[in-house]
Amino acid sequence: MGNQTAFRGFVFVGFSHFPEPQLLFFLVFLTMYITTLLGNGLILATAFLDSSLHTPMYYFIRHLSFLDMCYTSVTVPHVLKNLLIESKAISFQGCLAQLYFLVAFVGVECLLLAVMAYDRYVAICHPLTYTLFMNRTLCAQLVVASWACGLLNSVLHTAMTSLLPFCASRKLDHLFCDVPQLLKLSCADTFPNQITLLAVTMLLGVSPFLCIVVSYIHIVAAVLRIRTSQGRRKAFSTCASHLTVVTLFYTTCMFNYNRPTSNHPAYIDTLASVLYNVVTPMLNPIIYCLRNKEMKEALKRVLSPQKALSL
């Protein structure tokens, strides 16, 4: 009992499932993290500096890039530290702080992706009233509402998790603190927490996803009514990047949160969390740059301003 009361934190053992040298993991995670920061930072700066990108769609993309930089920075630096040192412990307060910001940023991104789908719906299905309807005030209100809901959701989960007793093992079979893994370690009845996690995830995860699906059903119907193939390609190209990001994010994130805890292998959770927490934020700027003609042209103007002026 003395040892249990002396240490109230947790020890990460997620990498014990993978026998490869930890230095290799360190280099891989460091490369992905630097790529994420540079890629999203470049998108953020380009969308801010280039006046042609001062539109609602790129306003939301700026916030998406900022979110990707934030929530990957909540976990990856601590993972990198744990790969270099023998002790892989985190304090109870540090774990709760990591949990709060991770859940908050992921929740905001779920809502922001739905907002971006709605923006594309208005742009394609109601092009004549798009600039009038999607004004700066509405865009700001949608972003603020996404942040408010995400932060409040995180307060709920963090508060409920902080009240749980952890009197059994302190070994967290994961790479960072997250709700499903912490519930597995509690020696109390976690059914209320699991139901809350499922209900709130349905509200802030499944509901925005359904909004995205409905938006794209209307978008596809509107695009198919366009007579020229060139017009259809142009309309679909404005949605391709967002749809790819949605697919990557939701397939991994919803797997991790939208289910009660179970006895499946722990490395499945670890791999899924790496996908949505590390890989997806790294791929987002690549997707938006490679599949978006406007962004590629803006990048050329920002990175080569003298050449752009001469043209």
Please describe what this structure looks like.
The chain has 311 residues and is mainly alpha-helical. The protein has one domain (2-11, 20-302): Rhopdopsin 7-helix transmembrane proteins, CATH 1.20.1070. Helix content is 77%, strand content 2%. The chain has twelve helices and three strands, in the order H-E-H-H-E-H-H-H-E-H-H-H-H-H-H. The chain has a three-stranded mixed β-sheet with strand order 2-1-3. The longest helix has 34 residues, at 92-125. The protein is globular. The model is unreliable at 1-5 (pLDDT under 50). GO terms for molecular function: G protein-coupled receptor activity; olfactory receptor activity. InterPro entries: GPCR_Rhodpsn (IPR000276), GPCR_Rhodpsn_7TM (IPR017452), Olfact_rcpt (IPR000725). Belongs to the G-protein coupled receptor 1 family. The chain crosses the membrane at residues 23-48, 60-79, 99-118, 138-156, 195-224, 236-258, 270-290. It holds the Pfam family 7tm_4.
